[in-house]
Specification:
Layout lengths: L2 H11 L2 H21 L3 E5 L9 H7 L6 E6 L2 H11 L4 E2 L9 E3 L11 H6 L6 E5 L5 H17 L2
Parallel strand pairs: 3-4
Antiparallel strand pairs: 1-2, 2-5, 4-5
Helix pairs in contact: 2-6, 4-6
Length: 155
């Protein structure tokens, strides 16, 4: 690593705990919001009590992290409608940034898996993954809400 790159990494580490705290706090709020929305079929977020490994999470972590996976009623058409309707959250297959990013795993990160392999891990075309960034929670919630409303209109 060059001296400049090392300096840049060290500067980023100075605020890492504050950034992670904000991202995980916002992710928890959004996971609860999504779980209650009529357009959403299922939510996977380790910080929620209904996560399949909630007991393991509780023993090992104090926060649920910044990544939320959720599936939509209406399958892939609804997932694509959601992605295209977002204004604050950007589509990307690289997750983990200061900005909130979202992807459709079945056509990006998991596209090389067969239908059977995706089924084994519980992934169908209705799932999206949201990597929560530093934006204000209300801005993200409002963006998701208006995009989800568009999904419901098209069904």
């Amino acid at each position: 690593m060059s001296p400049f790159n090392a300096w840049t990494v060290l500067k980023g580490l100075e605020t890492l705990d504050i950034r992670v705290e904000r991202m995980t706090s916002t992710a928890s709020v959004l996971a609860d919001f999504l779980a209650e929305h009529a357009a959403v079929r299922d939510v996977r977020y380790p910080g929620r009590h209904d996560h399949p490994q909630s007991d393991v999470h509780t023993k090992q972590m104090k926060n649920g992290g910044s990544l939320i996976a959720f599936s939509l009623n209406g399958g892939q058409p609804s997932a694509f409608k959601l992605l295209n309707a977002l204004n604050v959250i950007s589509i990307s297959n690289n997750l983990g940034d200061a900005k909130s990013l979202i992807c459709h795993p079945a056509t990006t990160t998991h596209r090389t898996l067969s239908d059977e392999e995706r089924a084994m891990v519980g992934l169908d075309d209705s799932w999206v993954r949201l990597s929560v960034g530093l934006e204000h929670p209300d801005d993200l919630k409002n963006d998701l809400d208006q995009a989800l409303a568009q999904c419901m209109q098209s069904r």
